[in-house]
Amino acid sequence: MKSLPPFSKLTCALAVSLAIIPAGLLLILILKYGVDIPYWDEWQYVSFFEKFSQGTLTLSDLFAQQNEYRQFFPNLIFVDLGWLTKWNKTYELLVSFALACLVSFNIYRLGRLTIGGSPARRIMIYFLANLFIFSPVQYVNWLLGMQIIYFMPIACLTTCLVIAYSQLGARAKFLSCMCLATVSTFSSANGILCWLVLPLLTWPDSRGELPNKRWLMLAWIVGFVVSAALYFNGYQKTLGHPSLSESLIHPVKALGYFSILLGKALEPGDMIFLKEQFGTGHKIIAAATGLTVAALFTVSALCIRRDMRLAHRAAGWLMLGTYSIMTAILVTIGRTGFGVEYAFTPRYTTFTLYLPIALVHLLPIILERHVAEGRLSGKKKMLFLVLAGSVVVSHLLIYPFNIRQMSAFSKRLLQGKACLLLINVIEEDCLTENVFPSVEYLKLAANGLDGLNFLRPGLIKSSRVQDIATAGAQNPEYYG
After folding, report:
1. Are 365 and 114 in contact (CB under 8 A)?
2. 449: domain range?
3. Which has the higher per-residue pLDDT, 380 or 169?
4. Whole-structure pTM over 0.85, yes or no?
């Protein structure tokens, strides 16, 4: 497929400027609210640094199952970056931000290749996409370094989509995307979905081309099977997690969970139900929002199916939306047993917000064809625009609320950091509430980090006021 006319230099400059607005705002928020302290599951990484300092860290340690994940490649980042920076958590937050920037660039490239119309129209679509990509609705993921694992699969997937639309040869496309799919698989539980790009990679430019790709398709399937076998070899169910059959036993509950997952990134219920969050009204609004977005995506897919001339241009966006839907299905299967309220967890929005991003690009592709052929009346066109606009406006309305949530979570981390400093002197409930559930393990891990000089400031080891004052005089910036 031939690419659409390139942007002018002025248009490119404007597009970059628009992209900087949400990205720049987020970077400011990360630097303002980020706290240099390990949180919850991050304390399990302390053993990596202790083994690394002793020269006993092995690849099997990095490959070992952690919860449902085999996050080998993120673990490489954690160890290498952590050792270089003395585990300054701010650098991990910036890695997540950099991955989001890569995703944004990939979305820009895909839009440039698939969206027609005026440059101003494409710029606005790209700007709207960035409002989602850099949204503070993901505030937990922006403030926790370990959440790199949530950004790596989508970075790999969108890069694969860009490669699939490129002018590279078939072998180069398959090899590059197989490597990226492998990285994605061993980064997060949903990373295996990156292998879904196969249909776009095998899209023939002519009828006679598809048979020539059969060996590459076979290699892709073998790569997928091998990756899946390695992932599930020795896999064990995580203790304390609900049965995977819960969603089958309670299908209505599972449907509600799934719908809320898809709607969480857009629904305004957090503002409407401030005094009764996660109540019946909040659940209804969130589920209705999720079902509406899913319905719009389904209608868009059906429209494209009836018009195969649009299929290649829309295929990448369909796969992006499918990624969000299938991830929501995986999360629903694994988490329904925790209760429907658990679907409101903000960290899952990094997976599901790519459904509205796909929709923001699919609707213009469909409208463009229908308008050109005179098959779209003014009323129907307005309906499509209103639906798309409402999706975006609803998300913009929840920006201020989620920034406040980001601030509140930052204060919680700061409180945990203050309590951690005194762990050798007194034990407070805030340690189990804001740092790690086991004080016994936390004390060992914290002193291990302190011995490596990986805590800033170091732990207070005396209950004498004079000693505490001396220790606290190191650098006031350490306290946030």
Report:
1. yes
2. 420-479
3. 169
4. yes
